[in-house]
Amino acid sequence: MTLESPGYIVVEGPIGVGKTSLARRLAQTFGTELLLEGADENPFLQRFYKDPKGAALSTQLFFLMQRAQQVQELRQGDMFRPVRVADFLIEKDRLFAQLTLDDDELKLYQQVYRHLALDAPRPDLVIYLQAPVAVLLERIRKRNRDYELHIDAGYLQRLVDAYTRLFHQYNDAPLLIVNAAEINLVEGEMDYNALLERVAEVDSGRHYFNPLPFDLSK
Known about the structure:
Blueprint (H helix, E strand, L loop, with lengths): L8 E4 L6 H12 L2 E3 L9 H6 L1 H24 L8 E3 L4 H10 L2 H14 L8 E6 L2 H11 L9 H17 L5 E5 L9 H13 L4 E4 L9
Parallel strand pairs: 1-3, 1-4, 2-3, 4-5, 5-6
C-alpha cells in the first residue's frame, strides 16, 4: 500500500485513549516529525490529580505557556518537511480550563490566553479517539504512571463529555472519529492498516471509523 500523508495530523482524545501511542506510530509510518504534548514536563500535574482545586490554575497556566512554545515551533518548522504529527489540539487547553478552573481562575486564564494570541497552524486531519470510561480507567491503570493514580471515573466522565461537546461542534479541519474501545492501534497490524486506509480516504468533512476487532482465531 502506497502511503501519502495528509499533511499536519493531530491525534486527540481523553486521557488513556491511546493518542500519544498512535501519534508515535503515525509519525514513524510517514517518516515525519513528532510533536508531543509533554504532560510529564508539567511539575504541577501530580499535585493537580491529588488536589484538583488547589493546583488547577498553575497546571493550566503551565500547559498554556508550553503550548505557546509548541505553536512557535510549528510555525518555525522546516519548510521542506511540513508534515508533522501531534498528540494535542490547541483547543484542548480551553477545554481543560473550563473543566477544572473556578470562575475567577477561568477569567485569569482567558486573559493570559488572549495576551498570548495563540495562532496554531490548521491541521490537515484531526483523528479523534473515543472509548468508554471503563476502558480508559483500565488503560490508565495498566500503564501505571504515578501522577495518574488519583484519576477517578467521575473526572474521566466529565472529560469524555467535554471532548464530545468539543468535537460535536468542531469544523476547523477534516475530522476522523475513531471508536478505539475494542481495537489495538499500537500493536495490532490489521487494525492499524485499516485505520491508514480510512485516513487515506478523508479529505474534508466529518468521517467515522468504527471497526470490529479482528479475530485471528477465525
